[in-house]
Known about the structure:
The protein has 268 residues and is mainly alpha-helical. It has helices spanning 15-44, 56-81, 93-121, 149-173, 183-205, 213-221, 225-244, 249-264, and strands at residues 127-133, 136-142. The longest helix is centred in the N-terminal third of the chain and has 30 residues, at 15-44.
Amino acid sequence: MKLPIVYPLTIPRSHNTMRMMAIVSSMLFSLRANLERAFNALLLQQPLCRTHPNGGVRLRRAMIVVALLAVGDASRVYAQDAVPAQPSDSPSTGKQVVLFLTGAAAGLGAHEAGHVIADLAFGETPGLKKVNFHGIPFFAITHRSGRSDNEEFVISSAGFWMQHAGNEWLLRKRPQLKSEQAPFAKGFFAFNVLASVAYAGTAFAKTGPDERDTRGMAASSHMDERWIGALVLAPALLDAWRYYHPGSKWATWSSRGVKIGMVVMVAR
């Protein structure tokens, strides 16, 4: 008896863009569920140390929640984009541009999600405010004034923490990203680097809307905003160097040191 020949299934190239769009959609829906589970679990925990009931414990919870979401978000993006492309499955230039921009949009979403999560962790209801940068319309995630300096610093820094966690995950899991055909992941990484450079520029010039992150970080830490700009710029430049020089250990540990230092500033 002659058995029929079975051919392996392949995914048409036309499905690449639809696949990446599905990744972004699944990210957005799952992030909320993951956040709610993590946050509810944290609320049920008893304080492990004697701290002010509205201060240190809530601060630690916020930091843990931001870290959990950053890791979950990054792992989802990179795990699903890490499938090596076959030579015959290379997307066209137009599709690569779409995937790159989609990755950048996901990076923006992760940055803003960091602010929202920090707000929720402190019992705030995030708001959306229209702002402009020298005539360019944009938006800002807002909350009520009157938070403690530490809480304000966490809320203002949360977007950068998301970027830092994402870059660390990506550069550790995929050190040869520059040589890969991964427009979505590259768009995500590019946003993280370029957004930090842009924020640093506004911090150095002390310009832009009052709701800018670097101004909030400077006011809550009682530092000159230009120093905050330097702290934001340094890991972005170091990560860009790591992208082009994957084996550079000095850049890797220098970048991580600055990122850790920005988190440690909460304890000031």
